[in-house]
Amino acid sequence: MSSAHSSASGQPASLVNRLNLQQYVVYLGFLVIFLFFAIVLKDSGFLTVRNLSNIMLQTAPVTIMAIGLVFVMSAGEIDLSIGSTVAVSALAAAVTVNDYGLGAGIIAGIGAGLLIGLLNGVLVAYVKLPSFLVTLATLGLFAGVSRSMTNLRSIPVTDSTFTGFFGSGSFLGVPSLIWWTVVAVACGHVIYRETRFGAHVLATGDNSRAASVSGISVPRIRLAVLLISGGLAGLAGLLYAGRLQAAKYTLGETDLMTVIAAVIVGGTLLNGGKGTIIGALVGSLMMGMLNNGLILMGLSVSDQMIVRGLIILAAVAVSLREKSR
Amino acid sequence: MHRAVRHFALLATVFVATSGYAADGKTTGPHGEAPTPAGTFALTAAEEQQVKDGKFTAALVWHEMSEYTNAVNSGAHDEFKRLGVEVVAQTDAGFDAARQKSDVETVLAKKPSIILSLPVDPATAAVVYDPARTAGVKLAFVDNSPAGYEHGKDYVTIVSDDLFQMGNKAAVAMADALGGKGKLGYIYHDADFYVTNQRDGAFKSTIEQDYPDMKIVAEAGMADPARSEEIAQGMITQNPDLDGIYVTWAEPALSVLSTLRGAGNSHTKIVTLDLNEPAALDMVKGGNIAALVADEAYNIGVTAARAAAGSLVGKTAEPFLVVDSLAVTKATVADGWKKSLNKDVPATIADAMK
Predict the structure, then answer these.
(1) Which sequence spans correspond to the domains of chain A?
(2) Is A54–B102 a contact, with Cβ atoms under 8 angstroms apart?
(3) DSSP strand pairing (B320-323 vs B36-37)
(4) What CATH number has the domain spanning A11-324?
(5) C-beta atoms of B101 and A46 within 8 A
(6) Comparing A17 with A174, which gets the higher pLDDT?
(7) Which of A54, A245, A254 shows the shortest C-beta gap to B105?
(8) Which of A1, A116, B135, B163 could form a Cys-Cys staple with B198, CB 3.0–4.6 A?
(9) Does position A323 have pLDDT exceeding 80, yes or no?
């Protein structure tokens, strides 16, 4: 498994080069795309504060989910159920907040995410089923649950404190979605980089047998990362419900691939052992910027999809090539 | 006095009759608006010149991209081009309301004068379009408008199919294909979606009211088109003697078609909505598909673009403009393609017709 740990045995000079390149691929890619759009779309509103802040607001839920997925993928697992978790959490929060108030809504939303994470975690960590299959199954299972929860209806969220706190409000002049992004990225980064738990997650993903021998409770780590991912997908559901002032079963359905792309382009290995929260943030912003810039370029929808696919392919190719050298 | 009572009685009769007709046989707008034929909305030469002089721009914020949306999109493009309105952006929300909100925010960076759109989730779409409405962008919608929005103040118009007419024509086409009698399967869209709900309902009520010898003996709701093959499989296994199956739109109808072919069934006829090349090919080759009911999708785009452009020079449009629909059969496929999509019939179908 290629990782920062295993690469420590390489030549000192090439190690420096390699680490630098690896570390900066996503930032360089981000910068190149940003500069490209800034030049091409200089008269099309791309560089306005409003447009750039829109990109950040629009990517907030994806960033939050991406943080959870960095933990999961770093531990060598995957969570495909996040798309459905978002919808279940948003609907649970919307129904509850309308009937029982703000606190109950938040608990129901995040709680639903945590419960789904717990189910995934128990099945992966203790029943020893592969996370790909478990979360593929729960993706379908909870897509069905979200459809049946409100019989396909969308539920308006009328509590203005909820919508302000989670989506449409602002604090100290900064939109709440940006606060959530900053707080989640900061907490995620510190836990991932600076705590023993973060190190244990990486060790589990790098080599679970070695991690186990060295005294790390691998099942507990697997449970924890899937729990984190579920909880954060639940939070993303609340952000969607707050931003749209409504919840529907379709929320988050199309996000899974964007989140995975953001995490991988950001520099997290698909098979574990290495990851970065800041990279996932930049990857997520890159995805949002691509959507935004390609629309502003006036491309047809099909052309937008083709160009977006090619750019993601190029970004992944560059970052994976660097890692496997 | 006597005369007044008679007048009242007459008015009451007319009211009851009209209401009955509205419930049973007429498309009404999503908020109960009376329909106005799309062809009645026109711009004068002077108004067209005013639009051209205005150097306006437009963004097309679609709910998803399909053959139908493509036709609407191309109608809008052509009409905007004719009127000198530049299309500056085009988006596809993939049926995701959150993405549609992002799309509206994004296209606003280009400061369009007009946004044409089909709301993914009308019940909650006000939040999606509010930034555009606040910015003074003229909004014209296809099929539906956000709940709480007022015609004339918040949006220009809604342009749609004559939905009842489509479902009704599907029922008539089914009856024509089966000689007015037989057992039917009914696969409807199991979602709270105004367009499909109206069309499906019109098919069912027409069969029930106008064709006593045709009976719907099997019903199945379909929420996800990807599952339609399984639904069809179940329906055909339980009812192998069905004479006809109505399918809510063409994409799931193809799954039903493949199920029938797989079962070696050439007897059961399918009637569905929207033009679709593989379905039409089966129809011209004398397969299971008996008729495809299509709307004038291209014309929806033309009308929405024209109404939105007109609003920029002070021309008001009726709240609910409807385009016509047509039942396309083997005999009328070439004309139907032209009328619905403003395109020549695809070469594969033209070849099969020779």
Answers:
(1) 11-324
(2) yes
(3) parallel
(4) 1.10.3470
(5) no
(6) A174
(7) A54
(8) B163
(9) no
